[in-house]
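Researcher: For the record, we're logging two predictions in this thread. I'll number them. Prediction 1 follows.
Model: Prediction 1, sequence and structure:
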Amino acid sequence: MSTESRQTPQVPAPDAPDIQGEGNYEAARRYDKSASDFAHSGKVDEAAQAAKPRDIKEADQMERAERMGKAHSKGDLKEDLAPQGAEQATAHPRVKP
């Protein structure tokens, strides 16, 4: 068997490579543009209001999910490092009045 038959065929590089591994540059550009467009759209406050919990139960679920996420923190942000078992205030400022 010759070595030529065992070699992987060379594939020419595309004109606009979709670089993977460290990241997809085109997807990152689309995300950045989309985030910037949204930030300048004037709809941020409306979206923030729509994202508020509708009741105490939903607020509790959101806070529990936030604590679970912060439990995986590397400690980059001091506020992510609450003492173990410490409960945050039970007043739910995010609940719509």
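Researcher: Logged. Prediction 2.
Model: Prediction 2, sequence and structure:
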Amino acid sequence: MRKNIFLSMFIVVAVLAIAIQGFSAETKAKTKTKASTTSTRGTFNMTGDITRVRGSEITISTKLNTILMFIVDNNTSISKSGKSIKITDIKNGDSVDVTYEKKGDKNIAKYIYVQEKYTTYPIKNKNR
């Protein structure tokens, strides 16, 4: 009889421990998801090639052929080689990294980094 009571209590404690652990893990998962969603809320990054520069708008095409248009305003920071440049310095075909915010259906560029184009030269072999 004593063994049955002890075994029953052991089972109850084990079930409670498993239930508490599951509840704790579920709460942590919800908290982690909420925190990560909040930290990236409204700010996105995109890399692609310039297909059009028109007034205060730029359009880029990504490697996956996604085309996005960005509005460049007075708060947009544009740089190349660590130096500040103007939107008129951006040319079709330039590779860019854009950090932007979505406001309604518009993409507002916050930072535009124009990537350097590197020229490759053939290596001359002196032993030939």
